Amino acid sequence: MTDRNKDGAKTDFSKSMSYGDYLGLDKLLTAQHPLSKAPDELLFIIQHQTSELWMKLMLHELDTARSAIATDNLQEASKMLARVSRIMEQLNNAWDVLRTMTPSDYTTFRESLGHSSGFQSAQYRLVEFILGNRNTDMMKPHAHDPKAMERLESELHKKSLYQEVLWLAARQGMDIPTETIGTPSRTPHCENDAVRAMWAQVYRDPKTYWSLYEVAEKLVDLEDYFRRWRFNHVTTVERVIGFKRGTGGTAGVAYLTKMLAVELFPELWRVRTDL
């Protein structure tokens, strides 16, 4: 008996690796455990699980981009940053699926969530930390998880992606304040007038500073998608639960709306006014 069909495709995987084996589909497709009989709970679980998978890839790409920038491998860094923007696009599109769940649908299983909330995502916190929004108070929800705390602390001992970009600018002879890049930051990046002036110099003469100009635009593109993700989060939550408090205890829409004002690379947005 042959292990291939008439077209030559292999059909017997009793002694070799199959598609499902390679992807670990047994574990992946049995990792959904609804706590209620509500039909929409499976949607809710898969939405958040797939978001976590995309964030896992995002962290990998951001770390690779950061390392590439640190070694002046800007072509690789640009590729990785462009990929991160496309990942953010996938995360944005996912809200369209979740928004098919009505308030009536959600109330049938919301109590099953207890105090669990996306606010507690360690991977999301790592994404914010690597991008420079390093608020150590936000580590408190992870205090019960030693592995998550170890990853967050490890990230705080590294320069953020934006710090590495500013180091790149310094290596290329630009005037960058030492305090912004000297040591890994444990606080959110704040707008700096000298950094803003440096970006103005780059944007006024992109041909001379093409590599910095290109990286800057990749960062703006990334934050653009990130802002859209936050906005979609706000509108989805308001559409589904209105102004109720979140399951994790936050103020819900009010908290998420406040997050819309957070800027990752403020000088890159302010410089547009200066040109």
Characterise this structure.
The protein is mostly helical and 275 residues long. The chain has one domain (36-274): Methane Monooxygenase Hydroxylase, Chain G, domain 1, CATH 1.20.58.480. Helices cover 60% and strands 0% of the residues. It is built from 13 helices and no strands. It has helices at residues 19-23, 25-28, 41-70, 74-98, 103-107, 122-131, 146-156, 161-171, 178-181, 193-204, 210-241, 253-259, 266-274. Helix 3 runs parallel beside helix 6, helix 6 (122-131) packs parallel to helix 7 and helix 10 (193-204) crosses helix 13 (266-274). It starts with 18 loop residues before the first helix and ends with a helix.
Summarize the structure.
60% of the residues lie in helices and 0% in strands.
The portion of residues assigned to helices is: 55-70%
CATH architecture: Up-down Bundle
Structural class: mainly alpha
Strand percent estimate:
under 5%
Report on the biggest sheet: none
Distance N terminus to C terminus? 73 Å
Count of beta strands: 0
- Provide the number of structural domains: 1
User: Over all CA atoms, what is the radius of gyration?
Assistant: 22 Å
Unreliably modeled segments: none
Q: Output mean pLDDT.
A: 93
What string, H for helix and E for strand, traces the elements in order? Answer: HHHHHHHHHHHHH
Mind telling me the CATH class? Mainly Alpha
Number of helices: 13
Shape: globular
CATH topology annotation: Methane Monooxygenase Hydroxylase, Chain G, domain 1
